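Input record, target 12 of the design panel.
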């Protein structure tokens, strides 16, 4: 999640404890392992251009191979460069895969950023929720679509350098691997694992009301409480998530989006955002929910494209 997200002063000071409940069977059985490995100290907070970032990419690529994903183009790695505030240049790397649909037509992009804040003042910011959890959700979605192929192409974008500027996604939409007009929807995951109230939010139905019936139907059977919102200024601009993660870069290019995430918690952008603070039962159910929602959105992608004029 980008650093500019809504203030922590609004967040209740509650501590999360990892649940001891057994893992649920079903989509994303490896999701907990993905979060644990990506948020370990040896990843050094996954800041762009660091050895920890490279190690995280190597792990994600190993999971791509395990799932049986194919690159979109010659290779998974899509490098880009950006300038930091101090004037130095950093190379970031997006990882892009595709699951080909059984029919031709529009594509759906599923995205999650893998970078986090790195090491600051000798402390590692491991980013278990932000956003190892989102990457784990994306990988679970990939597993589900490989097991039951989609009708439309599903592009999996594990992007770099989201923190502080959405750099990886802006590089993606500036030079998309497929014509931008063929992308009917972006489904973005950023922070899926920590909520005391059993709540996961999906933003995007206010700006794109034709998505609401699909997601309301998903909510009726979702394993967590799936709530629609955080996509208008009605409750204050700090609660509007429209520009708070990678989906915003797609929106700037006219691509409809939905964004799944939890509200902020005491570990947000803190060194305490570790795997040990992930409530495991909730996270497993959150992953199952985003898999269910992604499948529903892909099934109705032609209607989404028609409603949006794409």
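The sequence produced for target 12 reads:
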């Amino acid at each position: 999640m980008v650093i500019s997200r809504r203030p922590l002063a609004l967040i209740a000071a509650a501590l999360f404890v990892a649940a001891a409940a057994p893992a649920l069977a079903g989509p994303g059985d490896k999701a907990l392992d993905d979060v644990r490995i990506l948020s370990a100290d040896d990843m050094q907070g996954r800041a762009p251009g660091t050895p920890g970032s490279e190690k995280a990419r190597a792990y994600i690529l190993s999971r791509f191979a395990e799932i049986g994903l194919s690159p979109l183009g010659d290779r998974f790695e899509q490098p880009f460069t950006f300038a930091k505030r101090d004037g130095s240049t950093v190379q970031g790397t997006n990882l892009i895969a595709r699951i080909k649909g059984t029919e031709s037509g529009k594509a759906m992009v599923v995205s999650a950023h893998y970078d986090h804040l790195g090491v600051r003042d000798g402390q590692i910011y491991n980013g278990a929720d932000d956003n190892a959890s989102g990457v784990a959700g994306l990988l679970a979605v990939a597993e589900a679509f490989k097991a039951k192929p989609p009708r439309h192409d599903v592009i999996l974008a594990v992007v770099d350098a989201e923190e502080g500027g959405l750099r990886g996604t802006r590089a993606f939409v500036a030079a998309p691997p497929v014509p931008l007009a063929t992308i009917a929807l972006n489904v973005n995951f950023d922070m899926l694992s920590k909520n005391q109230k059993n709540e996961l939010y999906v933003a995007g139905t206010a700006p794109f009301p034709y998505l609401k019936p699909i997601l309301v139907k998903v909510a009726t059977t979702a394993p967590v409480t799936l709530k629609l919102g955080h996509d208008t200024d009605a409750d204050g601009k700090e609660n509007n998530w429209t520009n708070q993660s990678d989906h915003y870069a797609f929106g700037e290019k006219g691509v409809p989006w939905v964004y799944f995430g939890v509200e902020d918690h005491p570990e947000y952008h803190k060194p305490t955002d570790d795997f040990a603070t992930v409530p495991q039962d909730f996270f497993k159910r959150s992953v199952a929910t985003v898999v269910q929602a992604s499948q529903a959105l892909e099934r109705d992608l032609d209607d989404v494209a028609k409603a949006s004029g794409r």
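The chain has one domain: 8-308.
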